[in-house]
Amino acid sequence: MILPPVIFAGLAVLFYVGMQRENPDELPSALEGKTAPLVQVTPLGDKKSFSDKDLRDGDVKLVNYWASWCAPCRVEHPNLEQLAEQGVAIYGVNYKDKPANALKFLKDLGDPYAAIGADENGRMALDWGVYGVPETYVIDGQGQIIFRFAGPITDRVLENQILPAIEKAR
Predict the structure, then answer these.
(1) Of residues 53, 26, 51, 27, the one with CA closest to residue 39
(2) Which of 87, 83, 58 is nearest to 136 (CA)?
(3) Which residue(s) pair with 65 in the sheet?
(4) pTM to 2 decimals?
(5) How many CB atoms lie within 10 A of CB 74?
(6) Which residues on neighbouring strands pair with residue 145, listed in sequence order?
(7) What b/e readout covers 137-148, taking b as 16+ CB neighbours within 10 angstroms?
(8) Which of 6, 12, 39, 124 could be cross-linked to 119 through a Cys-Cys bond (beta carbons 3.0 to 4.6 Å apart)?
(9) How far apart are alpha carbons 110 and 103 in whole angstroms?
(10) Residues 109, 103: contact at Cβ < 8 Å?
């Protein structure tokens, strides 16, 4: 008899706490402020690949998970190219994609990546806590995750979230 009101009160508290989040659409990341997980990519065609050492080279960078079959990845692509033109190193992780399709995507839209690798079975993405593509991480020079953004990098996201996170990482 006392159990239903206790369960109701517990759920009410959980709902209240959940509604107090600053941005309810933002997916939380358990890795922000922690060292980036191990890089486990395979080469994508003849593109330059990357490793853990590259994430800890002293420079701020982005790690961007993407796929050729991902429509939002096409939406964010011009903004990635803009960042690359501004000198931001972007490391691409091609997620569960066919290599030929990924290489055609880059040939057709341009290649903003300083280095790129394939995560054919999604194991690296799982370790990084990727919800889906596109997803982007801002990494400081010591390999620590400063910020994670799930979804396409639009102009608004670029100005209000990605660029401030890059400045914070510096």
Answers:
(1) 51
(2) 83
(3) 93, 135
(4) 0.83
(5) 15
(6) 139
(7) bbbbeebbbbbb
(8) 124
(9) 10
(10) no
> Residue length, the chain?
170
The residues, any chain, with a CB within 8 Å of residue 78's CB and separated by 6 or more, are: none
For residue 12, pLDDT over 60 is answered with no
Instruction: Tell me which residue has tokens 């990845």.
Output: 73
Structure tokens at 8: 């109701």
Respond yes or no on whether the N-terminal peptide bond of residue 78 is cis (omega within 30° of 0): no
- 3-state helix/strand/coil string of 87-144: CCEEEEEEECCCHHHHHHHHHHHCCCCCEEEEECCCHHHHHHCCCCCCEEEEECCCCE
